[in-house]
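S., here's the first fold you wanted:
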Amino acid sequence: MNKTEIYGELTKLIDEHKILQDEPLKPHVYTRIGGKADFLVFPSNFEEVQHLVKFSLTHHIPYTILGNGSNLIIRDGGIRGIVINLTDLTDMRLEGEKIIAQCGAAIIDVSRFALKHSLTGLEFACGIPGTVGGAVYMNAGAYGGELKDVLESALILDNQGEMKRLRNDELEFSYRNSLVAQKGYLVLEAVFALTKGDSRAIKEKMDDLTFRRESKQPLEYPSCGSVFKRPPGYFAGKLIQDSGLQGTRIGGAQVSTKHAGFIVNIADATASDYISLIRHVQKTVKEKFNVDLETEVKIIGED
């Protein structure tokens, strides 16, 4: 199918105003880098997501799932096929001591929703910039907490476009990984099992974590967050700092002078700048400490 034919078929699946052609992806990711998407679409409900995925599979058109782009580098050549942006799926509701949140809701907003209802367990997520779907995908965590600690189940879309609900133990969570990531599934909804707590104590903890995050992380620049996973027995940022790499720059990308675990976009960086700097950091740390730094950030798209 050519682009005109694909567009015509897409308009049968979702509102044409929610279909963008040759859309620059820079405004849709935290790093503010990346090329264009052939089609960027914004489904309004789970059924539209399912229809889009099945359409892509039937016609052998590549599709890519995008949340708010907080832990993502999109290469300069952009993304072919259909990019399905889930940020319109933000509903959340309360059922007893459980919060059911759609995939596009910011995990920060879910933690604030928990605070509003005096529920404890999600305080650690008050500074994680990703969406619910992305947080489940990578078992996001911070300050000693991880999604697996509070997630009861997730509604997913599998590789055939079928909806399934998976329990926590079926999601095979590990450090910054899950069955969802391994299989390339799509998270539609998550159920968080929390407990009643004291709202004042919950807020105090969230305020403390927010202060610690804002004082240590380079939030004044676009970035993809923490670039590398924590290697066993080490801290990535400390290894990078001890390698003398803090402040190192390639093009518009720089190893943050505030926190060495971050690479920031200080001057209209390209994805090539970012990726080259990541490789340089990995090579240097390997040479100095014989430690392999594995990327936590996801890199997608074409050169």
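And the second, which I think is the more interesting of the pair:
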Amino acid sequence: MVLQSATILALTPMMGQAQAQLALSTAFNRTVRNRVLSQRLAKSYCQILLGVLPEFSNKVLLDVRQQVRKGFDELSTAPLPAELASRIAEIKKLAEASDAMAVLPPTRETVSAVALQSDKVMAATNATAEVFEKVAKVGSAKLINVAGRQRALSQRIARDYFLTAAKLDGKGLQDQMKADVAEFKKGFETLKAAPISTPAIRNELELGQAQWLFFETATLRKPDDKGMETVATTSERLAEVLEKLTNLYDAALKDVLG
């Protein structure tokens, strides 16, 4: 009994650390998800301005706004270091500014403002993701970041397609689209070569690449009514696959830590 008690006491700090890491993994995923949500919000808001599948676009916008609020509610319960907590608070402030604009009837001015704000959210979240990786002290945490960034890149490419259709393609937008496409393809190669893999992950990677081909082909079309509808639907299907893929990496990371 004495030996058993001593063993339990010795393991308690290790168990506490593992539990903290598990909570950190989930918080990491919830935080980086703000990148994709910011871009989906701007994308769907622009779709509404353009009259692209109005009911569908409004549903996506409402869903995104709900996910953003739920995500920050969940993060408020996570035990995080002070630096991460302050960074997340800043992301929340930026996201709330986007949300406040997105409830207004879309105009060219408000759509441009929401798009600009979405990039601010993405930049702040990218910086926070780097801090998360250092705090996690687990190399495979990078996979959650890469998979999560794939989600955001796909949606920013779609957003920029619609901004172009609305003739809101400011300086550098086309260059950014090309850079995002190249980075997305590079990200897939990184994930395919990663040491952490499961049958479910490999399956989602294959699905993701297939959906990417549909989506990329759609973005090369002229932004007429049919073209915009195709980009709207294929971008959402791609987002669903990439969301599941990121969650699978989250689960795999928890298995490693456990």
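Why I say that: The chain has a mean pLDDT of 88. Residues 2-50 form the longest helix (49 residues).

Talk tomorrow,
H.
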